[in-house]
Amino acid sequence: MARTSHVARTLISCFVVSLLAACASPGDTGASASASASADDGAAAASASSSMVTNATGASLDAALSGAWRTPQNVARDKYRHPKETLSFFMVNADDTVIEITPGGGWYTEVLAPYLRDNGDYVAAIWDDAITGQPKYRYGLNKDLRAKIAGNADVYGKSDVRLFDPMRPNFGPANSADIVLTFRNAHNWVEEGTAEAYFKAFFDVLKPGGTLGLVDHRAKPGTDLETQKKSGYLTEALVIDLAQSAGFKLDAKSEVNANPADTADHPNGVWTLPPSNQHDAKDDARYKAIGESDRMTLRFVKPAG
Questions:
Q1: pLDDT score, position 258
Q2: How far apart are CA 102 and CA 177, in angstroms?
Q3: Residue 76 is assigned to a structural domain of this protein
Q4: 20 to 30 Å CA-CA from 263: which of 4, 198, 228, 255?
Q5: pLDDT band at 26, cuts 50/70/90?
Q6: Which domain, by its residues, includes 170?
Q7: Number of domains into which the chain is organized
Q8: Residue 16 has pLDDT above 80, yes or no
């Protein structure tokens, strides 16, 4: 099935948002709506466009999100990670070839794999286990992801688990993917000094007109590089520069994963907050009240020409 052009998809999303706005009651303000999306950066289009993102069998993003296979702990984090709005903002269609970079234990795998199963392709790009000397958590997360996929072939059986060398990343044949997605990973690459290689690999594997969707912990503007590396929070300016240097064009920003309560200056960096909770037990209520981190949500496009 041919993928709708990026421009067409954007125009459709904007049309639907305008139509919904015209039909809305004048009194429908809603603090949660203003907190989760910004009307001028396309986040409102994210929420509306999800109703259009369906495959030929009628299986929708909503169906994937409500699947009984999702673990309760993951569902509980939807209020922080906003998967419906985020994937819709990235304009992920059910017939796309989507590469998710290092899915960890499979939080988004539980949504993307069944959503793409019938008409698209879900690729989980994971660290190559055969390479020794990597941080131990990588091997553990790879094991968890493989166990999840093997444990439910009906839901995950068509997933493509693809290995890559983290020092020389390559995610597949050139111009082969519609969308590359990465969630809360870029801070690791910046800390390791491999960010440029990753962004180049994203650019290479995407088709012309393809989308790079990125979510990561957001530092305050002007934060110095060493603080970013230590804290796990990155400035939008740094991420945008990395992507543009690789050849991408910034297409849109969304505030769907913003958290104004996060000051991004915690004793143990972003890991102070949930879900890591690296703080003293006496401070648990304080950090639970903040919630998960303030996050940038950026959509980049590989130029078509």
A1: 98
A2: 16
A3: yes
A4: 198
A5: very low
A6: 6-301
A7: 1
A8: no
C-alpha separations of 190 from 197, 208, 230 in Å: 10, 26, 10
Strands 121-127 vs 206-217: parallel, antiparallel or unpaired: unpaired
Q: What is the CATH number of the domain that holds 293?
A: 3.40.50.150
Higher confidence at residue 305 or residue 247?
A: 247
Q: In angstroms, what CA-CA distances link 94 with 69, 134, 178, 201, 265?
A: 18, 34, 11, 23, 39
Report the DSSP pairing between strands 160-164 and 121-127. parallel
- pTM, two decimal places: 0.84
Sheet (strand 206-217) strand order: 160-164, 121-127, 97-101, 177-183, 206-217, 295-301, 249-254
Residues 255/36, Cβ–Cβ less than 8 Å:
yes
CB contact at 8 A, 56 and 119: yes
pLDDT (tens digit, 9 = 90+) per residue, 249-292?
A: 999 999 999 999 999 999 999 999 999 998 999 989 999 999 99
Structure tokens at 42: 């396309």
For residues 214 and 253, give the distance between their C-alpha atoms in angstroms, rounded to a whole number: 10
pLDDT per residue over 101-156, tens digit each?
999 999 999 999 999 999 999 999 999 999 999 999 999 999 999 999 999 999 99
Does a structural domain hold residue 42? yes
- Is 1 a domain residue? no
Structure confidence by residue, pLDDT tens digits, 28-84: 333 333 333 343 444 334 333 333 444 433 358 999 999 999 999 999 999 999 999
145 belongs to a structural domain? yes
